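Dear Dr. L.,

I hope this message finds you well. Following up on our conversation about the binding site, I have prepared a predicted three-dimensional model of the protein together with NAP. For your records, I am including the exact sequence and ligand specification that went into the calculation, followed by the structure tokens. Please feel free to forward this to your student if that is useful.
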Amino acid sequence: MPEPLFRRLALIGIGLIGSSVARIAMQNGDLASEIVANARTQRTLDRVMELGIADRVEFDPAKAVEGADCVMLCAPVGAYAALAEAIAPHLAPGAIVTDVGSTKQSVIRDVGPLIPEGVHFVPGHPMAGTEYSGPDAGFLTLFDGRWCLLTPPPGTDPESVEKVAELWRRCGSMIEIMEPAHHDRVVAIVSHLPHLLAFTICGTADDLADESRQQVLKFAATGFRDFTRIAASDPTMWRDVFLNNREALLEMLARFTEDAQAMGRAVRWGDGAYIEDKILRGRVIRQTLIELKQA
Ligand code: NAP
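The resulting structure of the complex is given below.
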């Protein structure tokens, strides 16, 4: 087994993502010699100890990061600013602070200025997830074959970037370094907009008259069922993602709305060729995803 990358890894937030990292760290032993977990509630910390997925839990984030050479923020991005303020004075010199948040410009804006001199900040985003949340939701293979995007601001210590990249490789991920604004646009279309559509379509179905709503649920076809799976995601996490990737999400929504209107127009005027062409493009995208092993 390779040497552990870190002496002490502090996970600030231990839900789906944090607890998956914790499980891998505890099982493989090559991420860190000691895992410390912090969460917002004592209930989660008690559950973490029951599950045996950390060596130690700390209710106070400041205490959790003391002596840690790697700190990973795994809470909803809207909580980052307050968490960064709480931990900043307690970070060990030379430590690496990284994160898993789904938005990157906001994280750099909220956390970057609070990182003390001599501490390295390497923002990251594992492109893996499910609709479940909390410490019970994590699992060992979550990151297998998935991309992890790192968005280090200019001038970030290359050795720290490489250590974070190696952590994710040991979790099973492939690494891509990306510019933060580009990251936010890419995830707006591949992740944030699909979630917005799923939440909206479930709302629309729920707003239908009582009788039709019951029919919707009773006869839910695969199309609607697939949307309901995505729509079951954590409200706090997704509220924070939408509010912290506002510009890119609104831009993608505007483009989508135009395209949806065009599809509606084709339906109205019986333009079968247009409809068929769009469906064929969808099939090509699906086929490409399968070939890239990301389906
Ligand atoms: P989660 O399962 O809901 O867990 C969130 C964790 O953060 C919990 O341990 C929670 O503690 C803690 N926390 C600390 N401060 C909080 C606050 N103010 N409000 C709510 N929770 C707080 O979330 P997750 O799915 O692991 O997501 C964590 C991060 O990963 C987010 O930034 C998200 O954008 C990113 N991410 C998520 C996915 C995904 O598909 N879920 C994929 C990639 C990246 P308690 O349990 O005590 O409340």
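In brief: The pocket of NAP is lined by residues 13-18, 39-41, 44, 74-77, 79, 100-102, 125-126, 129, 133-134, 137, 234, 236-237, 241 (CB under 6 Å).

With kind regards,
A. P.
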